[in-house]
Amino acid sequence: MSGRPVKRSLTLKGHRTSVSLEDEFWRAFRSIAQEKDIPINVLASEIDVARDPETGLASAIRVYILNWYQDKA
After folding, report:
1. What are phi and psi of 65, to 5 degrees?
2. Each residue's pLDDT expressed in tens, for the chain with a length of 73 residues
3. Which of 20, 35, 37, 41 has the smallest count of CB within 10 Å of its CB?
């Protein structure tokens, strides 16, 4: 496990934004997007729209990933 977040750019509603996630979360995020057969930016936009405004996007993505795999278990 790398431990250190890696910052990458995503496009949400036509605007670029940076999100910092650990490599393991980036891999899981891409895997979920592939499984849903949608681009990672579309999945990020879905999460962004659904999140509480008080919750940061990176945190919302991590929780989404956790819930995705818990629901599959």
Report:
1. -60, -45
2. 567 899 999 999 899 999 999 999 999 999 999 999 999 999 999 999 999 999 999 999 999 999 999 998 9
3. 37
Q: How far apart are the first and last CA of the chain?
A: 22
Beta bridge partners of 20: 7
Residues 61 and 71: their CA atoms lie apart, in Å, by 15
What six digits make up the tokens of 34? 């592939």
What are the residue ranges of helices labelled H in 12-56?
Answer: 23-36, 40-50
How far is the C-alpha of 66 from the C-alpha of 15, rounded, in Å?
26
d(CA 73, CA 71): 6
Cα(71)–Cα(34) distance, rounded to whole angstroms?
Answer: 17
Whole-number CA gyration radius for the chain: 12
Q: What is the pTM of this model?
A: 0.93
